[in-house]
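With this grant's support, we have settled on a layout for protein records. One resulting record is reproduced below.
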Amino acid sequence: MDVFSDLIRGVRAHGSLFASSTLSPPWALHFVDGAPLTLCTVIDGAGWLVPEGRPPELLRARETIVVRGPGTFTFVDEIGTTAEPIECGEDCATPEQGGTRHRLGWHDPGGDAGGCGDGQVYGRGTGPGATTLIVGAYPVRGEISRRLLEALPVVLRADDGGASDAVLDHLAAEVAVDTPGQQVVLDRLLDWMLVCTLREWFDRPGGERPAWWAAQRDPVVGDALRLLHAEPAAPWTVAALAGRTGVSRSTLAKRFADLVGEPPLTYLTRWRMTLAADLLVEQDDATVADVARAVGYSDPFGFSAAFKRVRGANPSEFRGSRRPSPAR
């Protein structure tokens, strides 16, 4: 398991969070959920994406932008549009609120249908200047995927071309028809689109990428990272890790620290505590000792001390702080 695959595994498109609409100007869509990650791509036409507190971004046909929450954003036909903003969120994509599972038909001045929430399936714009927009809002579950979010800017624009173009072709064909199993296909296409977009953004020349991204390409440190992620509970020492990667202990230690920014075992401890944080929240019946063993600690007291040092709270306090408040 490589680092990127591990971090993105909790980021998935799910049914009603996928939406597509074809709109005729003037239009303004206000995305109010502030999802952790939202992918916006235009199949044809163009529009302006206006993130909360940031400059507008022009989005042309076959271009993609990823917005990191919790801020909201608006998508408009032009800056200063006369259209009244239509609030769009997760509820708008459900059949009960007027959309279909995969196609969210926001209010379209050229169609016969009404606005969001009126129980109707909305019209699709077909007039001159119509824009087809696809939006995927991603819930990000757990501490593992939050490490990916920390590496991203608020607005991420993908370059034209590359692997994303092939995915766009599939998306454009799939949203044009209603077929059995379409929701699953669209969700997976959107996941594919997100992965391609992030990979291409991390690989762009001169970009500011996280240390772990570049380190994955190193023949020695990349192997070490894959081992730590594949076997986080193993009794690793620098010597054992060096032996598995085929270099001396000193070579591995220096190369790892130079590329990743910290020693191998420090990285391992932080990764184990990230895994443990998710286990504490997701597995209510697991004891602290169970979680300690799952991430490579035979002594729950040693694990608790390490967890508090890294996360700022002991495991029980952390678990309690992540539980939802009881409803009144």
Remarks:
- Strands lie at 18-23, 28-31, 37-44, 46-51, 57-60, 64-68, 73-76, 86-88, 131-138, 155-157.
